Amino acid sequence: xxxxxxxxxxxxxxxxxxxxxxxxxxxxxxxxxxxxxxxxxxxxxxxxxxxxxxxxxxxxxxxxxxxxxxxxxxxxxxxxxxxxxxxxxxxxxxxxxxxxxxxxxxxxxxxxxxxxxxxxxxxxxxxxxxxxxxxxxxxxxxxxxxxxxxxxxxxxxxxxxxxxxxxxxxxxxxxxxxxxxxxxxxxxxxxxxxxxxxxxxxxxxxxxxxxxxxxxxxxxxxxxxxxxxxxxxxxxxxxxxxxxxxxxxxxxxxxxxxxxxxxxxxxxxxxxxxxxxxxxxxxxxxxxxxxxxxxxxxxxxxxxxxxxxxxxxxxxxxxxxxxxxxxxxxxxxxxxxxxxxxxx
Length: 344
What we know:
There is one protein chain. This protein has helices at 4-15, 20-36, 47-64, 73-98, 110-116, 131-148, 152-167, 175-194, 198-204, 207-229, 232-238, 243-264, 269-287, 303-325; strands at 101-102, 121-122. By secondary structure, the chain is an all-alpha fold.
């Protein structure tokens, strides 16, 4: 025996996956079509039609997620990050090549001069002679170019390809850039899926965002130089060199300048939250460097260490995707006229 009330409730639960604006216009019509096409005696929606409806609704939500910066700041923040994240990573890698750490003169022993050359340095142009680093830089350039062109799914595929290169050992960057790249691309992938897309992000980004990103990238390089200057290898050669403290001060000043400008210019707070979560594992790596103990976070990446590093980024990424595709309960409209409740 047919249960039209139960079948209708099932269809309405499935239609709730569609965006609210679409439901306001098409809900009754789609429900009528579905009910008319139901089999005699059907009590609930079939598995195939349920999957098809949810697939269609999720695809529509991904295409239409967020349309205005005033009433939808979170989708716009994701859109901006889908462009800014890859650009920031590329800037940080370029600075790693352009501004290496030069070993102090006290470290230039004859043996080192024969092995490392007359002007030994950590980082710099010699990185380009390493195949793994060239592949990493190439991946970053491709991803940055794709998001600038607004090619959402191509950029997502490039991130997946980068992850494969990383897994098989072809993606090689220094420790700090490793953790920053991992968290950055986790969040970028989620932003590409859950946001209006990089074209929207490109429209929202301004020269002010560019200045903040440039300061952040410079702070990353200054802290990288501090990390290099305080490594066990350099400390053994230089004997308490003060350079580490100098680079630390520079990185703090640059980061404070970036934060101050972002606050003064009232940048999207959700965009700044995404940047903060991206840098969370980076800060942990600086706090627990590879030379501090046998329990460092990246030197011995146990499951617990990886959870400490990347769980916040993974949780935020999953939350962003689920928030984009899950149905939202719409509030019932307030009654108008004399029946509308008056504020106390």
